Amino acid sequence: MEINLFRLCSGLKVIGYFMILLVAAIISVSYYAIVVVTWGPELLRGGVHSFLAFFIIVMFHILLVMLLWSYFMVVFKDPGSVPENWKPLIEEENLEAGSSLTLSENIEPEAFTSTQSSDGRERRPQVGYCSRCQNGKPPRCHHCSVCQRCVLKMDHHCVWVVNCVGARNYKFFLLFLLYTFLETTMDTLVLLPNFIHFFSEATDHSESPGNLAVIFLTFVLNLAFALSLLCFVVMHASLLSSNTTTVEVHEKRGAIRWKYDLGRKKNFEQVFGMKKALWLLPLFSKEDLDNVPALRGLEFPTLSDTEA
Question: For the whole model, what pTM was predicted?
């Protein structure tokens, strides 16, 4: 009996739905512990305690809104699919300015390959052919065995969002990581005094056992997530600065300089766009979508382009 590994991979989607429920549960527990049990009642004390409690609760809600907004954008935004019967444009060096050729309909799949120049650099068209999708593969495109399709500038398939992370939702994924890290870090810090007093309060029975258990669980969960997310934030910040995806890390090994690394500023703009007002929001301006081809996921400038 043959086992189809790709069908087994597609079963990971089921795990993703449980992850969404887990995220909702953690947010609910954290909300109850911080707003209802610990800092909400402090609003009634007056003085400095009320001001501090007000500030913490406002910051908690701001980060929570940004976290959820980014999260749902990652979940529901298409990371980028290859258009049906996609074929690249080939710019012939010996053609007159303004003229171009398209790959013929009769070109065989094997023709979707890249060539190398004499100096070892890869020259366009840097495309391939996906035998499973029966379609061309633009540069930096990879086939996802879970989604059963090719994804533009695929970074990875994330079970936490039941979706692939690619060219058109990578910014939202990074913002989700950032706001979740800030939220969990803040939750850990504001619950730290309560966690320190946890054992004395449990002995004196000055707090209900249920509330004590919620505070303890919330602190441990947020601390664990904050430490884990710190590693992911640092890793993706490094990938962003070099214009590399997670699946391209292996391809990048041995290269003197990564062909898509155009400098930190341009690398950042290829993911977040050029409009600074929207950098911290899970949105793109129409101007960025029109003027930054990398956001569409089909074309990516390389070092050879910028040097030319």
Answer: 0.83
